[in-house]
Design a protein that fits this description.
Elements (H helix, E strand, L loop, with lengths): L2 H25 L4 E6 L2 E6 L4 E5 L6 H20 L6 E4 H6 L1 H11 L4 E4 L3 E5 L2 H11 L9 E7 L3 E3 L2 E3 L4 E7 L3 E5 L2 E13 L3 E4 L1 H14 L11 E11 L6 H5 L3 E6 L3 E4 L6 E3 L5 H5 L5 E4 L3 E7 L1
Parallel strand pairs: 3-4, 5-13, 12-14
Antiparallel strand pairs: 1-2, 2-3, 6-7, 7-10, 8-9, 10-12, 11-12, 14-19, 15-19, 16-17, 16-18
């Protein structure tokens, strides 16, 4: 397929996706308009939230990169018109995680269950318990980690689709072990906040802050390693905000400092199951058998660091 035909195919499927998302918004009785930004549709909702549907049609990493550049140009155009950066809904996510993505989208549109962190308690999670929650509710699923914490309701809360019961887990977070890192002639124990997810139609006000405080009080405060040297400088926690869904404002509100952008990641997408895998993690056999596969380049992330 030539470059012009590939671009037209990409734009055509983006428009089809816009129609599908528009139908979903209609069913939810949310008013919106669909406008074209650089020939790519952007859905503008009455709440002020903008949504950009992105097709996954690229047959090569190079083509996927070009598709992302087209989208980035459209986003820059929208930002210039004070419309705000849109949420990105990639076709593989819309197809493979339909129920979760739709509930998550409604939460961003103001249709969610409101839970206060003060009505919750933090508990340690077993490996399987955390993995199940992340695989169900986090866009990137579970990941290797050292510490797993869950946020559990202490009393019932009314939910959009019923009622949340006492003892129910509404959010979870995972962290890495501390790694000794040298910066400026001193050693730091550096942890990574790897995952945070809540039930897709639940907003936990203060949830990330409560989990972070528990991690600081129970994990970092008890870490005695490297304190024997006068070159020990303290601890820090770093994390990333997915730019397809967030600008990282929640990290800034928790005292994290913005440390710049992390490059986009290229994925290979199975067009049958709509599952994705980073190209950098493909085995030699998977690399040799990419015929018929599609590719998608995400928008990268923003790195944040909290120094304790």
């Amino acid at each position: 397929m030539g470059q012009s035909a590939a671009k037209e195919d990409f734009q055509s499927v983006c428009r089809q996706m816009a129609g599908s998302i528009a139908g979903f918004l209609d069913d939810a009785e949310i008013r919106f308009s669909v406008r074209g930004e650089s020939t790519l549709p952007v859905i503008h909702t009455e709440t002020g939230l903008c949504i950009m549907p992105l097709a996954v049609t690229a047959r090569s990493p190079e083509e996927a990169h070009e598709c992302r550049i087209l989208a980035e140009n459209a986003i820059a155009e929208a930002d210039g018109n004070d419309k705000g950066r849109p949420i990105i809904i990639a076709e593989d996510r819309w197809q493979s995680e339909g129920g979760c993505i739709r509930r998550r989208l409604l939460a961003h549109l103001g249709i969610f269950t409101h839970v206060f962190a003060r009505n919750c308690e933090v508990r340690k999670l077993h490996k399987g318990e955390a993995a199940d929650f992340m695989n169900r509710w986090h866009s990137y699923g579970d990941a290797t980690c050292r510490y797993r914490l869950g946020l559990f309701l202490k009393k019932a809360a009314r939910e959009v689709n019923g009622e949340l019961q006492p003892g129910e887990m509404v959010a979870a977070a995972t962290f890495s072990n501390g790694r000794l890192m040298e910066r400026g002639g001193k050693y730091y124990h550096s942890y990574q906040w790897i995952r945070y997810a809540s039930l897709p139609d639940v907003r936990v006000t203060g949830g990330m802050g409560k989990i972070m405080k528990h991690f600081l009080d129970e994990v970092i405060a008890g870490d005695q390693d490297a304190r024997s040297t006068d070159r020990f400088g303290g601890w820090d926690i770093m994390s990333y905000a997915d730019l397809e869904w967030s600008d990282g404002n929640v990290y800034r509100s928790l005292g994290f400092a913005d440390e710049g952008l992390k490059s986009p990641v290229m994925y290979r997408v199975d067009p049958i199951t709509w599952t994705r895998k980073p190209v950098s993690r493909l085995t030699d056999d998977e690399t040799r058998h990419c015929d018929g596969c599609l590719f998608y380049e995400n928008f990268g992330s923003r790195k944040y660091r909290f120094v304790h």
